[in-house]
C-alpha cells in the first residue's frame, strides 16, 4: 500500500482493549494514524491512539460513521455490527476481515459447518434453537453425556460455554441458539496464528501450548515452543494454513485446537484478529503478531515468524476477592529477573480474573523459562487498594 509511506493513512480499529492498544503501538512504529472506537473513553487504547471515537461496536450508526472516517478498517473483537460493515464494503471501504468472512466466524454453528465442508478434523456437533430442544434431545436418547454447549453468538473468553457432564449439570445449560458438540478428552490445548495477504503470501507462527485457569476458563500460561512432537506441531500449522486459505481471508487468523491422548488434533475455534495466545511474539519472534496483522492488511510482505528465544507467557489476572483501583504486587522484584518482560494494559479497575496484563519470560531453554515463569506467578499479583 504505497499510501503508507506518506504516513497519512488512517487505520480504524473497532474496540480499544488490550489487543487494540498493542496494535496501536505497533502501528506507531510506522507513524500510521490510528483511530479507535470503543464504548469506554478510558479503554486501554484511548491514551495511545491518534484519535478516539466513542461508540458501540454493535450499533449500526456508530460503526458506519466511524468507518467513514478511516482508510482501512480492522477490529480487535468479533462482536461487531455486520450490516454496517457490509454497507461500508459496498462503498469500497477496505475492511479486514471481510464482513462476509466475519459473519461465518461470529456464528459458532456456521464455523462448525465450515470445518465440515473443508474436511478438517473437528468434533461432531448438532445445532439447537434453545435450551428446551437440548433437554428434549437428551430425553429422547439422541444426545449423550458428556457434551459441550456453546452459544452460537456473543461468547468470548470462556463465556457462553457450558460443559455438561451429567443430568446434574443441566441447571447450567445456557438459553439461546447453540452449537452442541461432542466432549473431547483433551490432553493439550494449542494455538497457531497464521497471516495471509493479497499478494498470496501465507505465514504461520510456531504452535503454542496453552494452560487454562480452571476457574475462569482463561489462558493462564502458554509455552512456545510447545512440548508436542514436531510432526504434531507441523500438522497444526498446516491446518491453520488450510483454514485461512479455504476461508479466503486476508489478515490474521488465530486457530485454537485440541490435542487428544493419541496426539490427534481437533479444530476448536478461530478468531480473525490478534489473540491472547500470540502475545509472546512481541519479544520472542522476529515479527510480532501485531506487526504481522498490519503487514497483512496493508498488503505488505509478511515478516519472518522465526522464534528468537523460547518463551513462556503468563496472563496477569485480577486476584479473586479483589475489586477496585489497581495495585500490582511483586512488580519490582519480577522486573529484576533477567528475561522477564511485563506488559500492563492500563485498566483502572481490577476484578476477579479480569485480564490486567501479561508477562513474557524469555530464556535459552523452555524449561528455564518455565522455572522463571513459575516464580513470577507466585510473586506478581493484581489486587486492589
Q: How would you characterize the overall build of this protein?
A:
There is one protein chain. The protein has three domains: 2-95, Rossmann fold (3-Layer(aba) Sandwich), CATH 3.40.50; 124-182, Dna Ligase, domain 1 (2-Layer Sandwich), CATH 3.30.1490; 186-384, ATP-grasp fold, B domain (D-amino Acid Aminotransferase, Chain A, domain 1, 2-Layer Sandwich). Strands 10, 11, 12, 13, 14, 15, 16, 18 and 20 form a nine-stranded antiparallel β-sheet that branches. It has a five-stranded parallel β-sheet with strand order 3-2-1-4-5, sandwiched between helices. The protein has a four-stranded antiparallel β-sheet with strand order 6-9-7-8. The protein is globular. With 385 residues, it is α+β, with helices and mostly antiparallel strands. Helix 3 (82-90) packs antiparallel against helix 4 and helix 4 (99-106) packs across helix 5 (108-118). Helices cover 28% and strands 30% of the residues.
Number of domains: 3
Mean pLDDT over all positions: 95
Output the CATH class name of the largest domain: Alpha Beta
Task: Characterize the largest beta sheet: strand count, sense, and whether it forms a barrel.
Answer: 9 strands, antiparallel
Question: Can you tell me the overall shape?
Answer: globular
Our estimate of the beta-strand percent is 25-35%
N- to C-terminal distance: 48 Å
Note poorly predicted spans. Answer: none
Q: Nearest-angstrom radius of gyration?
A: 21 Å
Tell how many strands the DSSP assignment holds: 21
The DSSP helix count reads 11
CATH superfamily of the largest domain: ATP-grasp fold, B domain
Q: Structural class, from secondary structure content?
A: alpha+beta
Helix content: 25-40%
CATH topology of the largest domain: D-amino Acid Aminotransferase, Chain A, domain 1
CATH architecture of the largest domain, please?
2-Layer Sandwich
Amino acid at each position: 500500500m504505497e499510501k503508507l509511506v506518506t504516513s497519512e493513512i488512517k487505520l480504524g480499529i473497532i474496540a480499544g482493549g488490550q489487543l487494540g492498544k498493542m496494535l496501536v503501538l505497533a502501528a506507531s512504529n510506522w507513524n500510521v494514524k490510528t483511530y479507535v472506537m470503543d464504548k469506554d473513553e478510558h479503554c486501554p487504547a484511548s491514551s495511545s491512539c491518534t484519535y478516539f471515537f466513542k461508540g458501540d461496536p454493535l450499533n449500526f450508526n456508530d460503526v458506519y460513521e466511524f468507518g467513514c472516517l478511516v482508510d482501512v478498517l480492522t477490529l480487535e473483537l468479533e462482536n461487531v455490527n455486520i450490516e454496517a460493515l457490509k454497507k461500508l464494503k459496498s462503498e469500497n471501504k477496505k475492511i479486514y476481515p471481510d464482513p462476509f468472512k466475519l459473519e461465518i466466524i461470529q456464528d459458532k454453528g456456521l464455523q462448525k459447518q465450515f470445518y465440515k465442508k473443508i474436511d478438517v478434523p473437528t468434533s461432531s456437533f448438532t445445532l439447537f434453537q434453545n435450551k428446551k430442544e437440548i433437554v428434549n434431545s437428551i430425553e429422547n436418547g439422541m444426545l449423550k453425556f458428556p457434551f459441550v454447549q456453546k452459544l452460537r453468538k456473543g461468547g468470548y473468553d470462556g463465556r457462553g460455554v457450558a460443559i455438561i457432564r451429567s443430568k446434574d449439570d443441566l441447571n447450567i445449560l445456557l438459553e439461546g441458539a447453540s452449537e452442541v458438540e461432542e466432549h473431547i478428552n483433551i490432553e493439550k490445548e494449542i494455538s497457531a496464528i497464521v497471516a495471509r495477504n493479497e499478494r498470496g503470501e501465507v505465514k504461520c507462527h510456531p504452535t503454542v501450548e496453552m494452560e487454562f485457569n480452571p476457574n475462569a476458563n482463561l489462558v493462564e500460561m502458554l509455552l512456545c515452543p510447545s512440548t508436542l512432537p514436531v510432526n504434531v506441531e507441523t500438522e497444526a500449522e498446516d491446518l491453520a494454513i488450510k483454514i485461512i486459505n479455504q476461508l479466503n481471508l486476508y489478515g490474521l487468523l488465530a486457530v485454537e485446537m485440541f490435542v487428544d491422548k493419541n496426539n490427534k488434533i481437533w479444530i476448536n475455534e478461530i478468531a480473525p484478529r490478534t489473540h491472547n495466545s500470540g502475545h509472546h511474539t512481541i519479544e520472542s519472534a522476529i515479527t510480532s503478531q501485531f506487526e504481522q496483522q498490519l503487514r497483512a492488511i496493508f498488503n505488505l510482505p509478511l515478516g519472518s515468524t522465526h522464534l528468537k528465544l523460547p518463551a513462556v507467557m503468563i496472563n496477569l489476572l485480577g486476584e479473586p476477592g479483589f475489586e477496585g483501583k489497581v495495585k500490582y504486587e511483586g512488580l519490582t522484584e519480577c522486573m529484576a529477573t533477567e528475561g522477564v518482560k511485563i506488559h500492563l494494559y492500563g485498566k483502572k479497575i481490577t476484578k476477579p480474573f479480569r485480564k490486567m496484563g501479561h508477562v513474557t519470560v524469555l530464556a535459552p531453554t523452555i524449561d528455564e523459562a518455565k522455572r522463571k515463569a513459575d516464580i513470577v506467578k507466585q510473586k506478581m499479583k493484581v489486587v486492589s487498594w
